[in-house]
Design goal:
Helix 1 packs across helix 3, helix 2 runs antiparallel to helix 3 and helix 2 packs antiparallel against helix 5. The chain is of the alpha/beta class.
Length: 440
């Protein structure tokens, strides 16, 4: 077992949804002295029909912005936290915090401020329960005037602050703007905060505790009982996350990747499970040639045909410039000698379809051009595919045996993934077929 000096641990909303979950999280923190810095999310759902506190706060702020009385909606939020504090038997009163937050919401302190108070209050309570210091994220995590994250200022200020606190709780999801107002990361932003803290603390490991025992090889809603990925590289994770796999917020990869800090995805409810280790590189082979499978719907393909397209200087550039002018980025670009396919998000071309077709026709004079909707992309990702003969053939054969029509194929130059395009209604069957082919 590796000897760690500093671990940063982040607990998701399900891991801190109620007092019992707080006890589990605290037991995990106390089990290892190196778990010195803790990043909490706001309380999540305690049961399927429950509400997440962040959603309750958003609703409360919307009511206030419409001039409505928020006594009832804010009272429900107060009740959630009082139940946690009382059940834990804490000598800690959140009443002054409640009054300040309620007043700020009523005075329109901002939607981001309202949303961030879920993490803020959970951080206060967790710090009191653990006996750790509390560091307000607004004091150590910074955004620029244009709303982008200021990584270097944050790393300097946060790093200096952590050196003064051997043990601390830093709430996730938010930081501050230059005018001292609160700004949040996108949803799932506590993952980002945990990664930022891990970098600033120069941690040996960033543990991300959630309600699953690691990153799964496929979506369990589609593939029955998929295996857990034991080890995955940052690059593989980014490929799978981009294609829709969800466990860790995609942006949370970068601060720790920059610092070379591994991430361990763990299950708060099954702390004995090793989970998934996310690393820069590894020699471990995992489950054969592939690491995981993920799929993404809601795509359209712009198909262009023209004889001798490959000899026409700047043809591809002209097509992409049309999309750029319309503010549209492309997902993939599989092409042939006389054909070019551009995969884009269907929502992105809404109300722009005629303009795109007309301008491409005017500039490029193609022999045919059409847009096909209802396309899904399936990514087969694996670091070992480059050395495994026949990986593409196995994947394509599996899809063909499932009687599924393949609309396009794209393989990156790094040979880290194989992208297969199918009709949306065939995506689930294609994923099951490929999983069964590679995972015996």
């Amino acid at each position: 077992m590796q000897d760690y000096k500093v671990k940063v641990v982040k607990f998701g909303g399900s891991s801190l949804a109620g007092a019992d979950q707080f006890r589990k999280a605290a037991a995990i923190v106390r089990a290892e002295a190196c778990r010195r810095y803790v990043v909490p999310s706001a309380p999540g759902k305690r049961f399927s029909s429950d509400d997440k506190v962040t959603d309750m706060l958003y609703k409360c702020y919307e009511e206030a912005s419409q001039g409505k009385d928020i006594t009832e909606s804010f009272g429900k939020i107060e009740s959630r936290y009082r139940d946690i504090v009382n059940d834990l038997g804490l000598d800690f009163s959140p009443e002054a915090e409640f009054a300040a937050i309620r007043s700020a919401i009523q005075h329109r302190a901002g939607r981001d401020f309202a949303a961030s108070r879920g993490e803020y209050l959970n951080g206060k309570i967790l710090a009191a329960y653990l006996g750790y210091d509390f560091i307000d994220a607004a004091d150590v995590i910074f955004f620029r005037e244009d709303g982008t994250f200021d990584s270097e200022k944050t790393n300097t200020v946060l790093g200096d602050a952590l050196k003064k606190h051997p043990h601390a709780v830093i709430p996730g999801f938010y930081g501050s703007m230059p005018n001292d107002t609160i700004r949040t990361f996108s949803r799932g932003g506590s993952d980002i905060t945990g990664s930022i803290v891990a970098r600033a603390a120069e941690a040996d490991l960033y543990e991300n505790w959630t309600d699953v025992s690691g990153f799964l090889m496929a979506d369990p809603r589609i593939v029955e009982n998929p295996k857990v990925i034991e080890v995955i590289t940052y690059r593989e994770l980014r490929e799978l996350s981009y294609m829709g796999a969800t466990v860790l917020h995609e942006d949370a990869i970068f601060p720790v990747r920059f610092a070379g800090i591994p991430i361990n995805i763990r299950n708060t409810n099954s702390p004995e499970d090793p989970g998934t280790m996310i690393v820069s590189s590894t020699t471990r082979t995992g489950s054969g040639a592939i690491t995981g499978i993920a799929g993404k719907k809601g795509l359209s393909v712009i198909s262009i045909e023209k004889d001798m397209m490959n000899a026409e200087l700047g043809f591809g550039r002209k097509v992409l410039e049309v999309l750029e002018k319309q503010g549209i980025s492309f997902e993939h670009l599989p092409s042939g000698i006389d054909t070019m396919s551009v995969v884009v998000a269907t929502d992105a071309i809404k109300n722009k379809r005629d303009a795109i077709l007309n301008e491409i026709c005017a500039i490029c004079e193609p022999e045919s051009i059409q847009i096909e909707d209802g396309i899904a992309l399936l990514a087969v990702v694996g670091r070992n595919m480059v050395n495994a003969k026949g990986t593409s053939a196995k994947a394509l054969s599996a899809v063909a045996r499932a009687d599924i029509n393949i609309r396009l194929i794209d393989q990156g130059s790094s040979e880290l993934n194989i992208i297969i395009g199918v009709h949306e209604e065939d995506l689930s069957a294609a994923m099951r077929a490929i999983y069964a082919e590679f995972v015996k």
